[in-house]
Amino acid sequence: MLLIRGLSRMSIRRLSKLTCIPPRPSMTPRIGNDASTCRRKYHVEGLEGLMLAPAVFGGLFVALWTWKCFMLVVFQNKIIFMPGLPPNSRREKIQDYVGRCAGVQWREERIRARDGTDLGLCIADLVLGPSATSVQPSVAFYILYFQGNASSIPPRLPDLSSALCMLKRRSAQWHGGNIRCTIVCLSYRGYWTSRGSPTEKGINLDAAAALHWVSQMHRNTYGGEDHESRPSAKLVLWGQSIGAGVATNLAAETPMPANVCLDSLILETPFTSIRAMLEVLYPQKWLPYRHLWPFLRNHLDSWKNLGTISEKYESKKLPEIFILEAAKDELVPQELSQKLFDRCLDTRLPVSRKAVGGAFHNDAIFRAEGRRAISEFLSHRITSARV
Questions:
Q1: What does DSSP assign to residue 252?
Q2: What is the value of pTM for the model shown?
Q3: C-alpha–C-alpha distance, residues 274 and 299, integer Å
Q4: How far apart are the C-alpha atoms of 326 and 332, rounded to whole Å?
Q5: pLDDT tens for residues 338-369?
Q6: Which of 73, 81, 248, 377 has the most C-beta neighbours closer than 10 Å?
Q7: Nearest-CA neighbor of 270 among 307, 209, 321, 197?
Q8: How far is residue 142's CA from residue 338's CA, in Å, rounded to a whole number?
Q9: Are 321 and 377 spatial neighbours (Cβ–Cβ below 8 Å)?
């Protein structure tokens, strides 16, 4: 019995060594390093979640800003020049406005720019003076008109005709011989019946082509190679809005033909430059658009051009500048007209100006006060040319 008990005790000890039963896991959670690691992990994930939404929306906002800036730079020609507004502007006809032109006869002619672009002109002739006869005038006066950035030439003809009629009535009080006045309205490339697409460089070529047409017409009308045998040709450049920039570009950059003398410039509701208009349209410094000026391909810098004109004509007779402002201009602030006026004074260019009461940007000569101011200035320049 003792032997059996001894053997059983030995077998139980061996069995306990061979089959070790693992202890039951404790159900009580351990508090230590693992818990603090979890808390840090959840804390970090919570911060990332809170920062994700602002990062996404902020990135989207910056991306949209960048995209708009890119669009402004790439499509600046279509933003500045709008020949398709209103939608029927390319289909306008002179005949549709004949009844509103007070008897002034307008005609269309075609010219070509130096790069071959086909352009349209609207032209009218008037004989001014107390006795409108066919006798050769003592002075031939030419007005080269440059329109604003939208619409076309035909809708502007009634207001231009009204200003010319005021000038004709005023000329009945003049003394001396008659004066022939020809107004030439340029349709920029891409506008009205002209071909091509508008850009500042292209429109400068168009203006030079119109100037060449004036020179050629004067030569063909009065004939002869002797300058003494023909009346002198005086030129007035008249530009409205962006047309004022085109007019100053032409006066500053293009040599005048030998048979044409630049007499004066009419700047109707002008601005100093496209860069200045960026600051006017986007005055907030935190907006990036006003800082896009280094990428401009169109400048129309009248402020710079006035200085060039003064230097160019320093040894000759300086052209006179007339600034016509709109008192309630909703686009161009009065400060820009004031800067142009001060620029003329600084560069010793003779200058005068007139603000049309109650007028908005596009209706300065739509009002009788504006047309009267234009006719008075033209009358003053024509009578001065006769002396």
A1: H
A2: 0.84
A3: 5
A4: 9
A5: 999 999 999 999 999 999 999 999 999 999 99
A6: 248
A7: 321
A8: 28
A9: no
Of the two residues 22 and 329, the one the predictor is more confident about is: 329
Distance of alpha carbon 186 from alpha carbon 210, whole angstroms: 7
Helix and strand totals (H; E) in the chain: 10, 8
According to DSSP, residue 148 is labeled: -
How many CB atoms are located within 10 Å of the residue 268 CB?
27
pLDDT tens track for 79-121: 999 999 999 999 999 999 999 999 999 999 999 999 999 999 9
- Are 231 and 259 spatial neighbours (Cβ–Cβ below 8 Å)? no
Give the closest residue to 260 by CA, choosing from 182, 340, 327.
182
Q: Phi and psi dihedrals of 349, rounded to 5? A: -85, 130
**Closest C-alpha to 209, from 109, 77, 321, 298:** 109
What DSSP element (H or E) covers 352? strand 351-356
Look at the block and give the residue holding tokens 């040319």.
385
Return the structure tokens found at 115: 């790069």
Q: Largest alpha-carbon pair distance within the chain?
A: 164
- Average pLDDT in the 216-225 region? 81
Distances (CA, A) of 238 to 74, 179, 248, 374: 30, 19, 9, 10
Q: Which residue in this structure is represented by tokens 């005055």? A: 283
Residues 6+ apart with CB under 8 A from 240: 145, 146, 147, 148, 268, 269, 364, 365
Query: Where would I find the H helices in 196-273?
Result: 200-222, 242-253
CA distances from 213 to 1, 146, 161, 218 (A): 143, 15, 21, 9
Task: Check if the beta carbon of residue 240 is closer than 8 Å to that of residue 229.
Answer: no
Residue 354 in contact with residue 364, Cβ under 8 Å? Answer: no
Task: Report how far residue 270's alpha carbon sits from residue 248's, in angstroms, rounded to the nearest whole number.
Answer: 10
